[in-house]
């Protein structure tokens, strides 16, 4: 579970809804027709704007923003360096069994390409293409939430216009103008609320997750190509440490110190 997403969403809901309740007019913010226009209209337009295969994955894509974990780059570097040590000691073919046991399909495929004796330039070309396709797929998924972020306020404004038209038909009743205006503006509130609390933050989180996954893939490619080139495991580790932020480089060094302490 992504704690930042859960905490951020909960905090926004508590503060906004709490502010409404504290104002003493909570019931005035509940209006079913306005919800149908804003949320129903937006979802219909999103379905129209995207292929059905992508729409079917909407729930799965949303879960990525709420439940994905930040990748453990330190452990990944240690795994690849251990592969480099084994390849130097026993040869590239010795990695075939390790590749079959990996949970990450991209890394398993990368190792298998090397074990199969594929030309290094072809290995890099295949893996770079996979990363490009991954980025395009992630951009398309993020685009659905960008579209929602644009459409929620638009349908909110549409609902306001519908409400104003209905209100103007009753101008002969001055007492109904105030409540009618309030109901008309609720749709604008719903549109802004859904865009800024759900659609746009989810889009931003998907972009962050995509960036993290791309870095992981690029780290794997760098490591696998270094293994294929027969480079010293220490050099492989130094190459891969470039991908780590300072605090994770320190964590890697601490793990090395702990391993040395355990051996002594």
Automatic annotation (TrEMBL):
Lineage: Bacteria, Thermotogati, Synergistota, Synergistia, Synergistales
UniProt membrane topology term: Multi-pass membrane protein
Gene Ontology process terms (BP): bacterial-type flagellum-dependent swarming motility; chemotaxis; proton transmembrane transport
Residues covered by the MotA/TolQ/ExbB proton channel domain: 100-216
Protein name (database record): MotA/TolQ/ExbB proton channel
Keyword Cell membrane assigned: yes
Family: Belongs to the MotA family.
Keyword Ubl conjugation tagged: no
Domain of life: Bacteria
Residues spanning the membrane: 28-49, 151-168, 180-200
A GO CC annotation given for this chain: plasma membrane
Subcellular location: Cell membrane
Sorted UniProt keywords: Cell membrane, Chemotaxis, Flagellar rotation, Hydrogen ion transport, Ion transport, Membrane, Transmembrane, Transmembrane helix, Transport
InterPro entries membership: Flag_MotA_CS, MotA-like, MotA_ExbB_proton_chnl, MotA_N
Domain Motility protein A N-terminal: 6-91
Pfam families assigned: MotA_ExbB, MotA_N
